[in-house]
Amino acid sequence: MRVAVVGKGGSGKTTTSAIVARTMARHGASVVALDCDSNPNLGLSLGVGDFETERLESMRESLDEGGEEHAPGWDDLIARFGSDAPDGVRLAVVSRIDNPSPG
Amino acid sequence: MRLAFVGKGGVGKSAIAGTFCRALARQGHPVLAIDSDPLPGLAFSLGLTISDAPLPDEAIEDKPEGEEGPRFRLRAGLTAADAVEQYAATAADGVRFLQFGKHRGSTGRGLFRSQFAFRQILRELPEDRWNVVGDLPGGTRQPFTGWGDYARLILIVVEPTAKSMLTARRLSRLALDEEHPRRIVAVVNKAREAGDAKTVEERTGLEVVGAVPWDVAFAEAEEKMAAPIDMAPDSAAVKAVESLVEQLSAERIS
Lengths: 103, 254
Description:
Chain A has four helices and three strands, in the order αβαααββ. By secondary structure, chain A is an alpha+beta fold. Chain A is globular. The two termini of chain B are 13 Å apart. In chain B, α1 crosses α9 and α3 packs across α4. The chains are: A alpha+beta, B alpha/beta.
């Protein structure tokens, strides 16, 4: 199953995603939670804490700055850019925060 | 005063920005309110019943061949001050309102033209005549991609929640503008406990210049698409925004 959650800012996208991910994992599914938000807070709602959420974010930024190699495939991406959240959910941050100014 | 409100989606930027504009205008200051969030919000919290106030097409023209400068500009002879006088909507207390950043057609061309006009107006509008208060898009992607350059004071609206405070830390990094140093501060919204301002200060590293308490009046005004300052003038939240206005205008004078 592949699920995406969308909505207005502040409406509860991140919280909903995290509860869905952890509930599915508790029912025995293997779950990967992808944070595709340009303001990636999913780690907080999954319960990995401030520090780990910011670590994933800085690793994602480091990729753009050339400090990290791109992952050659899906498994490698989840392994290197991911983090273990409770209930066996694997979290990875996909988005980037800052954007260059338009011309 | 040239300032802009930013923050995580749903923290209450528009409600605070709209109330701020009206309170500043009541002190006798001319206020231009600018919404560059594609989702409507500021117009309602100012008390307007429209949700859009664009510059009309006729106000913007292509740069003629041979002229220096950006691709589009205000029509020849139309100054930034004229554009505001002629095209900005007028809200209660004399607040003027312009909406930018919105897709109004099937192509991006209109948005693109209006973005050039927006920048020109903010660049050329006399600072001694107009106070500019902006409501920037929520989240971290859009607010500093050219929409917030005019602001010399950035007010990050922060709820005392982990997500909102983490967002505020990111925004405070993104708001740094090396070419034009500016002040970056926090306004706490939906404060429920006395210690909330201190928590926000500790977790964001930002100076907290005001704390707006959790107030159902803000939520009710939003539901009814009305201005909090009209619907609940005596509410604690409106009073807190009014004292923020007083404090910031006093700091500016001193």
